Amino acid sequence: MIKDSRLSSVLHVLLHMAEMDSPATSETLARAMSTNPVVLRRLMAGLRYAGFVVSEKGHGGGWSLACNLADITLRDIHEALGSPTLLAMGHRSERPDCLVEQAVNQALGTAFHDAEALLLARLGEVSLATLSANFHQRMLACKGHVTATHHEHPPTCLMPS
């Protein structure tokens, strides 16, 4: 099964951007995601439309955050990405003639709806500021052995000492 990692990827990029003092090019951010700059620009388009990021062309241009990290939740980002499907499971047939399958669809449909509502609610409780604070705690636990924006070197500490 192919997993949709857009939300995770965009959150990763946004946290890198929060650590930068100047705009970041699509190339720089794509390198942090191990992807192509075109893929990154496609992902960022919804965030720009939502007002979470801005892009400037030309020398010294690039992507920048457009609002406070505390004002953006993971649900906001999910919605800016077009509200991709959260659950990969679904019904065998959406409009079955079989009464057994109708009963199955009703039970599963309720469970799917409840699970999705719970997940969306949880995503709405977590801000980018919360993720940033978690990152900073991890960085402090590693006593500065890991730099904020470099992936070339794996973390030298896995557990706080």
Task: Describe the overall structure.
With 161 residues, the protein is mostly helical. It has one domain (6-141): Winged helix-like DNA-binding domain superfamily/Winged helix DNA-binding domain (Arc Repressor Mutant, subunit A), CATH 1.10.10. It contains six helices and two strands; from the N terminus they run H-H-H-E-E-H-H-H. It has helices at residues 6-19, 26-33, 37-50, 74-80, 99-125, 128-141; strands at 53-56, 62-65. It has a two-stranded antiparallel ribbon. Helix 1 packs across helix 2, helix 2 crosses helix 3 (37-50) and helix 4 (74-80) packs across helix 5 (99-125). The two termini are 38 Å apart. Mean pLDDT is 86; it is low at 152-161.
